[in-house]
Design brief:
Layout lengths: L3 H22 L3 H20 L19 E7 L7 H10 L5 E4 L8 H9 L3 E4 L13 H19 L5 E2 L8 H10 L2 E2 L4 E2 L8 H11 L5 E5 L3 H16 L3 E2 L2 H5 L7
Parallel strand pairs: 1-2, 1-7, 1-8, 2-3, 4-5, 6-7
This protein binds zinc ion (ZN).
Length: about 260
């Protein structure tokens, strides 16, 4: 598997070979530029592909033999949508995981309490979910993640052990911050793009085409489209013979720190 450490090692060797060739035969300047661009491209791919495990181990899929899947929601809680999502889940007897944004918890504490009371799981999705989050220093990231955990703990009495990176991006600073906070990083196997795809049929098709045992499906509890396809998705997944189980049950990892 291509990891950040292996890539650094590989490119260190490439630079040594380039320097030797340059010394022996002379090389054009763009030979170094090409090597640099290749390195940047691989690191960018690794940062944006949470499933690659490029910077660190992330859980993106459960064991297929359970013949089960887990549903997750990011970016809530929002008073306009989260209660509706909870209503659909209750009506279909589905337990899901909510990766909450810390700053959205204030004023919505009752929603988090309701999630936990109804058997759902609450995870950390950062406090700020800032657009430039990935440019934060490690120290600022740690403060942000701990602030989100504190907001969740204050509302529910539970300290989340699961963290999902904002935008699904991981970089060396975030890896280090996650490790020092002791989080288990959760990704996904299906990114529904429920906030992007505007067509219900296309969205269902996109998700169902990728659906297989062990899947961790990413939705958002802040979109109209999610509310529209959720009941249909639950029915279609069950019609495929898949059980919908809580995320911690699917991956067999304790979701709270204590
Ligand atoms: Zn998010």
């Amino acid at each position: 598997m291509l990891t950040h450490r292996r890539t650094q090692f590989l490119f260190a060797k490439i630079v040594i070979v380039l320097l030797l060739l340059d010394w022996q035969f002379g090389l054009p300047w763009w030979a170094y530029l090409l090597a640099l661009l290749a390195y940047i491209s691989i690191v960018a791919w690794g940062s944006y592909s949470i499933r690659s495990g490029f910077f660190m181990k992330t859980t993106c899929l459960g064991p297929p033999e359970k013949n089960a899947i887990a549903i997750t929601f990011d970016d809530g809680p929002l008073a306009a949508y989260t209660p509706k999502v909870l209503g659909i889940l209750e009506a279909h007897d589905v337990k899901a995981a909510f990766f909450c944004i810390g700053h959205r918890i204030q004023g919505n504490e009752a929603l988090l309490k309701k999630m936990v009371a109804e058997g759902h799981l609450v995870g950390n999705h950062s406090f700020s979910h800032h657009f430039w989050f990935d440019l934060f220093s490690k120290k600022k990231m740690v403060e942000d993640l701990l602030q989100a955990s504190e907001a969740i703990e204050k509302a529910t009495g539970l300290r989340p052990a699961f963290f999902r990176p904002p935008y699904g991006v991981i970089n060396p600073n975030l890896k280090s911050a996650i490790e020092s906070c002791g989080f288990h990083t959760i990704g996904w196997s299906i990114r529904s793009l429920d906030t992007v795809v505007g067509d219900k049929e296309k969205l269902m098709q996109r998700v169902m085409d990728q659906l297989k045992p062990g899947a961790i499906v990413l939705f958002h509890d802040h979109g109209k489209m999610t509310l529209e396809i959720l009941p249909e998705f639950i029915r279609a997944a069950r019609a495929k013979g898949l059980r919908i189980v809580p995320l911690d049950e699917l991956i067999n990892i304790e979701p709270y720190a204590y």
